[in-house]
Every structure is written in C-alpha cells, then in structure tokens.
Amino acid sequence: MESDAAVEISGLNFRYGDRAILKGINMRIPRGSIVAIMGQSGCGKTTLLRLIGGQLQPTDGRLVVEGQDMNTISSDALYKLRRRMGMLFQFGALFTDLTVFENVAFQMREHTDLPESLIKDLTLLKLEAVGLRGVRNKMPSELSGGMARRVALARAIALDPMIMMYDEPFTGLDPILMGVIAQLIRDLNSALGTTSIIVTHDVQESLRLVDYVYFVSEGVIVAEGTPDEIRASKLPYVHQFVWGEMDGPVPFHYPAPSMQQLLTGNSLHSW
Amino acid sequence: MLNKLRRELESIGSLSLDLISGIGAVFVFLLLTLRYSGTSFQRFSLTIREIFYSGVLSLIIILVSGLFVGMVLGLQGYETLQTYGSSESVGVLVALSLTRELGPVVSALLFASRAGSAITAEIGLMKATEQLSAMEMMAINPIARVVGPRFWGGVISMPILTAMFIGTGVLGGYIIAVLLIGVDSGAFWSQMNAAVDVSHDVLNGLLKSFVFGLAICSIATYQGYSAAPTAEGVSGATTRTVVSSSLAILALDLVLTAFMLKG
To answer: How many CA within 13 A on the CB side of residue A28?
Structure first.
C-alpha cells in the first residue's frame, strides 16, 4: 500500500568527513502538509533540505521521498523525481544571464515540448500569481531582493511540483513581503495540494503558516509538534528560540577563555 | 640538517602528488564533459552563443596582437636576413614562424587569458550564487547545460582564432617588409608560397591550436566548477586557470612539436 507520507526519514546520519552534521534524524512529512524545520544557523537545516532533494547522500539511515529510497536511487530516477520537486533558494538563484520571463520559462523549455505560445501563456500566469507580470522583461540584476525571491518562486512552481522546498524564504524581507510570500506558500498548498517543507528561523511568521514544526539543534531533532504545542512548550531550547531570549541553553557567548584568565595573562596563547 | 632535508623532500613529494591529482581531476572532468556533450550539439544554438562570447569577443585582442607580432617578425627578420643577403625570404620567415609556433602558442595564451578566465569566473559565480544547484534541482544536468556548450564553444573557436592570428600576422609582416622597407612584393609572396607546406605547417599549426583549445577549456571549466563558492574562491580559480593553461600550452607545445618534427 502506498504511504501517505511524501517524505519519510528514519535514523538518518550525515557527515562531512569526520564532522557529524545530522545525527539520528527521524521525520515524517504527510502529503499536502506544510512543515517547518527550524533551528539556529548552521544546525543542519539546509543540509537536510539538500538530502531530501538528492543533492547529498545520507551517510547512513533511511530517506524515502515519494516512495523512492534516496540511498539507492539511480541518477535517471533522481532526475525524474526532481521534475516533481521545486526549491526556492535563499537568495533566489535566478539565472543572471536570462530575463525574468526566460527564467520562469526555463524548465518548460527544457522539459516539455509545449508550443511557444502555450509556454508564454503559462509563464505569464506564473508571474501573475506572484504579482510580477509587469517585470517580465527585466534582468535579475534590476530586481529588488524581495522581487527576485518572488520571481524565483514563480520559477520553482513552473511545472506544478508535488513537493516544494523553501530555504529561508523570509530572510531579509520586510513585513509586507514576508506576508506576501507566506500567502503565496499557503495558496500553492491549497490550490495544488503541494507538500511544503520550509527551512527557516523566522519563528512567528512560520508558526502562523505551518501544520507541524521540527526543531533541530546541533544536528539532532530536539522538539517537534503543532504550532500550538510549540508555543506552549516548556522545553528551555524551544522557549528561548520561540520567544527570542538572548541567553538560555544556546549561550550568547561563543566558547572562549574567561575574561579573568585573559587579563591575568594565563591563557594568552589561546587568543 | 637531516630534518630540513626531509622536510624539503616531503614538500617536493606533496607538490608532485598535488600536481598529478590535479591533472587527474581535470582529465576526469573532461571525460564527464565529453559524456554529457550531446546537448551541446543537439541544441547547437547554446554552443553558438558561447562561440560568440569566447570567440567573437576575443577577435579584437587576437587580430591586433597578430598584426603587431607579424610586424615585429617582419622587422627582426629583415634585419637578420639582410646580413646574409636574403632579405626577400622575410615572407618565409614570417609565415613559418607564425604557422608553426607563434600563431598557435600566442593566440592560445591570449585565449586563455581572455576567454578561459571568463569561463571560469562565470561558472564559478554561477556556483557561488547557487545557480548550478538550482539547475540540478530542476532536473537539468549543469555539466550538459552549462559546461558542455562553454567547453565546445571554446574548442571550436580556438583554431579559427589561430588562423585569423596567422593571417593578420602575415599581413603585418607584409606591411613592414614590402610597404615600408621595400622588399619585392612578388618575392615576398612567391617564396612564402613555395616554402610553406599546407599539411606540414598550416594543418599541424591548427592541430596544435585544437589541442591547446581542449586543454584551456578543460582547465577553465574544471576550475570554475570546482571553485569554492566565495569571492576569494572564484578569484583564485580564475588565476589558476590562466597560470595552469599557460603552463599546459607551453608543455604541450614542446611535446607536439617533437612529435611533428619526428613525423
């Protein structure tokens, strides 16, 4: 029987050389849901997204995406799977030598034999969906950061993906644009039934948007639950993260010798 | 003393290993590029676009340099040949120097600096700004879509640029020797025509430039694709492209010349 999960992860470990990035990750993302993966910068969130997208291979553990085991998937099968996936990169990753229109039409031209007139209509529809039909002839360098992110979103949804991955979609956006992007994610989810995985550290906006949250710290899932459960959580790490407290389980200071040791000259060699 | 010697030997060994693994990595990347070259020919418009960026935009520097090199050869050649009373042979000297050596080598060095560095910087920046990752996530192979057309665009451009370099070089030699110094025009062309052999001189020269093109484009695409995704990484990769390509051109020239003279 086919599983109702778009992504299933069990006992996943990932290392860069000797450095363990992800340790014993277990996760289940149901089809059609919006799930957030939260945590500090450098905790392994984006690595997890790249593992789901097949850009990295797990060191060990099981990772299944749309019924495909990512440990044993062939190159051809991975490329077929990726045609049903979309990814919004943190800074858009628009092709700088192509116009906005050409960027959004890129996948249609590469993967389909659709007539040019249909590609034009579909591209304009995607741009209309993100409110940027009017900039279709501009180059990416002429767009603001928020506009580039919206064009990148139009490009990512060009082939109506079953799974959408968002890498820090709210970073560096003003509150209006943040709301616009959140609304677009919600609309996409309800219109196409797309499974959405959002990697973010923007807590309040994400908690309003998602169905379920995983908290990652130092490569381990330290908490999970619905947005209400997360808001009510008494776990010190989650509490510090959700309410933006300066000190807590995550210290303000990066580990270093004490100031007293430095002033008395006992640890000058460790400067 | 013994320790110092050991350290020196270790560093020589380490450098040698780095060099061999570097050459190996470029070669493996070349094989990968060849494997995914289908797109470059099935959608030839992608390659034509790169021929424009690598070839057409390098024309000015190639033509101007060719003209000056030919003029200098004309001047130096006339000065030396006059001593032996054979100043009419200046056309032969200019043509043979250009077709056999200076044409392929100088145009390849210029191409590595002008187009090779641009290819590395472009691919490296595409990597740094996640454009290559985005392409992968769209189920499009970046080696087929980005690297292949740039590689073949450069390889196709190189012999054409070399031919143009040689042509303008000969013209430069003619301007100096015939128009300015007054060497007989008929002698200039007829001696050149008699001495220059199409297969032995011209085709061998173009074969050299094709091999140089392969080397430059392999190094340039590999350096861009493997560059660290930072500003420093891209600038380092661009420098490595120019240095490695220049050394590869000179080393390959020695090997190819030895084989061609023997043949």
So the answer is: 5
Chain A residues in contact with chain B using a Cβ-Cβ cutoff of 8 Å: 53, 55, 79-83, 85-87, 89-91, 93-96, 106-107, 110-111
Smallest Cα–Cα separation from B154: which of B216, B227, B237? B216
pTM for this prediction: 0.86
Taking the C-alpha atoms of residue A207 and residue A229, their distance in angstroms, rounded to an integer, is 10
Q: Is B19 part of the contact surface with chain A (CB cutoff 8 Å)?
A: no
Closest CB to A93 among B134, B141, B145: B134
Label residues B1-13 b or e (16+ Cβ within 10 Å = b): eeeeeeeeeeeee
What is the strand order of the sheet A195-200 is part of?
Answer: A85-88, A163-167, A195-200, A34-38, A212-217, A220-225
Collect all residues with Cβ–Cβ distance below 8 Å to B129 and sequence separation of at least 6. Answer: A91, A93, A96
Burial class (CB in 10 A: 0-12, 13-18, 19+), B152: buried
Q: Does the ipTM exceed 0.85? A: no
Spatial contact of A135 and A147, defined as CB atoms under 8 Å apart: yes
CB within 8 Å of A208: residues ≥ 6 apart: A182, A227
- Of B120, B113, B85, which is closest to residue B218 (Cα–Cα)? B120
Predicted local distance difference test score (pLDDT) of residue A253? 63
Q: Nearest-CA residue of chain A relative to B39?
A: A110
Residue A246 — pLDDT band, cuts 50, 70, 90?
low
CATH class of A5-84+194-270: alpha beta
DSSP B14-38: HHHHHHHHHHHHHHHHHHHHHHTTH
Under a CB-based contact definition with an 8 Å cutoff, are residues A151 and A132 in contact?
Answer: yes
CB burial of B44-78 (b: ≥16 within 10 Å; e: otherwise) equals eebbeebbebbbeebeebbbebbbebbbbbbbebb
Backbone φ and ψ for A187, nearest 5 degrees, come out as -60, -45
The tens digit of pLDDT for each residue in B186-225 reads 999 999 999 998 888 899 999 999 999 999 999 999 999 9
